[in-house]
């Protein structure tokens, strides 16, 4: 076996003392206390150039694994990431070059001392949830992260049925538990033991076997009732018989696959509460306001899909008389500035019965807060909000919800409080954990506190992610990062808020609670270009004029002089990170690409004065400069306007009609909705290899990856694609079909809802039959809430 890295480093340091010394001192010479990965690899690369012997050394290996370092006059501390969430901490004495391992707490302690300049209190609170979950089955392989439910089913099925009778008895109890609106479902209490259940199942099978499969439940319900069966097994004889056969199989020879299919059929979810406290949450006039963006669109699409899936399942279960209930709970804002945010209840368009329920924030005196508040300022109001919202929700639903879904840090905290109190299954959705977005938001939390209150936010995150029964994310990277960058959830494993507490085990991303369930694009808006019967033909003249028109001015620049060439299309907000200017530069510098296609850009404003945002204005001016510099006015059409969804949807298809392609050139993209939209329209798509699109697209099959840091290569890849499309009949169609198939298989709201509700059932079931309840963790988190979160939130004043 290869010796451990630390031993190899030790001998390397002895044998190549000067090389190692040179690197260490070049790091010290940077004169920074904290070094990011890029600084360390750059310092190393500049030395490796001088010394051809170094690349294969243990030092090179350590540099490759190193995520960050901290340094003072005597010591260099290194954090090495061997694999996803597998960390090792080392320290090197700068004088003697001795290397020793240190534990996470010592590493964090060193960082605290550097950050505060003081020797922190010798006794600092350490947050550590690892001991609580020793008994929990954990995933072993990094590749399996995000697929917790499958693992859980496998492990727990075998545990549950360790003795067949024991498992079967738990199942019997579980089936007698189901009720909706005071009505018993599945099994009546008359079926008292396993023998009676087995006999009843045999008799029912005999009875159902003599009926036509399509016979409706009502036709034979009295006869099944006499055997102890209540509604919920299926809407017709065929389905009821199938469901019962699954149960008989389970009682005979349990398997995880049958377990999942059987659980998916049990009527468990009739009502869902979705929490999104902050922001302007409404259906019109709210987008583009502070803190109101993707999350609102996501939730509205999600709610419609959830309701549809709940309705479909209830119909299959023979319970279509029950109306599924989905309620989004948000803040009521009296000073609503023309939005509906001051309405207590608002029906959600496109759903039958889903609605928004608004509950105001109140201050300590009980007065309603009239105005909008930034998401960073909501902390003192959430506890009261949770109590008030719970009361209003119970009244609205005439009972408890079956599932509570939190959104973002504030929603997840309220979901935690409510779910704990009501004993309901809790699902968390982070959307974006802020911790990795802001550099040193943990170490220097005090300096940022006036604006951001990260102390409150990260404390709330820790509580909520550990309390949740399951967590869903849009991508793998959100949980676990990539080979060389850490995941958003992973960043909560080990960190410190100096002066407050130190986290040595904040979360375990190998816990089976994590599941990737990606959102989709609205199927009513984004559908394949070939579906001519659904196309919005009446928009075509307008789109034609917009794209090929000759008028320029306030919101357009550039006129396409060769309109027959295919279009390369991009559409995004004009943030620096979206890198629209980067794309224009690649295009401008690549003669072949320019010769083959026109570029259509929908972004920002053409008139810089129309922008209210400094970063956007700077990007606009830069784009004008590039258009001038490369002389692009005959080949690039830049539209500086926000397109409504229907037009945007038709535009993707319009570009596909002309055998064009879509490009998403961002420096980083968390998920990439436009990528999904373009693919769902059948438009071949090129997208950044940093972030979500890396997972969405399989390079060369369902689209292409481009590296935004290597514009030349990206432009060449685009040019090569169009060249091949000209030469090879069917190539464009093959990539188009690949994208469509990928979206259909992985990124639709229908699939999302189906997965989400299956997860809710499976986690709810295991919570009931096993010790997944995690009582010890819950009590620990309650204490953390009481002793850490509350004082922090109260200190903000309210
Ligand atoms: N969008 C739009 N009209 C525009 C520009 C963008 O409808 O003029 C939509 C686009 O179709 C997508 C969303 O805005 O649904 C942008 O989502 P994405 O995830 O690409 O980026 P974000 O802006 O959320 O970072």
From TrEMBL:
Its EC number is 2.4.1.13. It catalyses: an NDP-alpha-D-glucose + D-fructose = a ribonucleoside 5'-diphosphate + sucrose + H(+). Residues 147-235 form the Sucrose synthase EPBD domain. The keyword Kinase does not apply. Residues 258-548 form the Sucrose synthase first GT-B domain. Residues 562-721 form the Glycosyl transferase family domain. InterPro entries: Glyco_trans_1 (IPR001296), Sucrose_synth_GT-B1 (IPR000368), Sucrose_synthase_pln/cyn (IPR012820), SUS_EPBD (IPR056736), SUS_N (IPR056735). One of its GO terms (biological process) is sucrose metabolic process. Residues 3-112 form the Sucrose synthase N-terminal domain. GO terms for molecular function: sucrose synthase activity. Keywords: Glycosyltransferase, Transferase. It holds the Pfam family SUS_EPBD. The keyword Transferase applies. Belongs to the glycosyltransferase 1 family. NCBIfam families: sucr_synth (TIGR02470). PANTHER family: PTHR45839, SUCROSE SYNTHASE 1. This is Sucrose synthase. It comes from Parasulfuritortus cantonensis.
